[in-house]
Amino acid sequence: MEDEPKPFKADDGRTHLIYQRHCHHPKIDTPRKTCKGFEVTTNVDQCTFLDPCARIVLRPPTSERTTWLDVFALRDNDSYLLDDWKRKTHKRAIIFPLKPCVFIGIQTVCPNNITGYLTRYYGNDFATKSHYVCKNEEWIANTDDAKQIAVPRCPENDLFCKANVFIRGIKNKIKY
């Protein structure tokens, strides 16, 4: 597995693989590179995550949105699966058997009970609560996950910001 060389353009229509070299249990200030190739010690874009272990990034040239798929590593303890990083356990029936699904237009497999899986990480409102809201032309973190990422001021002509719309990752992207 080879990490995507940086810098790269997320909107070039290619699929990019980024992985966290320090997975599992990296320190919060672990150095990592932004998508533009700058070394930082905080989360500033979709390339500077600490968890999950890997991320697949795709932004077709015709789209205004970057979509990503997070890849988590779980430890199998026969009766349950353990996510060491988040200290979450999953009953095997939540994950297996994997079932076919379409994610960001790609035919793939998903956990057996995707709602049960995501609820363990993001709570019961994971599909309805925005990670950010726009107040006075500024993005405000609305969830604990969002508070870990630096967000720029909304430009005056940013209709998404004005409409309080922010889409992140998996929300509304899975079809069965």
Tell me, briefly, the overall form: globular
- Note the beta-strand portion: 25-35%
Q: How many β-strand runs?
A: 13
Give the terminus-to-terminus CA distance.
29 Å
How many separate domains make up the residues?
3
* Low-pLDDT runs: 159-176
Rounded to the nearest angstrom, the radius of gyration is 17 Å
User: Quick check: average pLDDT?
Assistant: 73
The biggest beta sheet reads: 3 strands, antiparallel
Q: Which structural class should the secondary elements be placed in?
A: mainly beta
Question: Helicity, in percent?
Answer: under 10%
> What is the string of SSEs from the N terminus onward?
EEEEEEEEHEEHEEHE
Q: Enumerate the strands of the largest sheet in spatial order, edge to edge or round the barrel.
A: 1-4-5
Number of helices: 3
Written overview of the protein:
With 176 residues, the chain is mainly beta. It has 3 domains: 1-72, no CATH class; 75-122, no CATH class; 132-163, no CATH class. 10% of the residues lie in helices and 28% in strands. It contains 3 helices and 13 strands; from the N terminus they run E-E-E-E-E-E-E-E-H-E-E-H-E-E-H-E. It has helices at 92-95, 114-122, 159-162; strands at residues 15-19, 32-33, 39-40, 54-58, 67-71, 75-76, 80-83, 88-91, 99-103, 106-110, 132-135, 138-141, 174-175. Mean pLDDT is 73; it is low at 159-176.
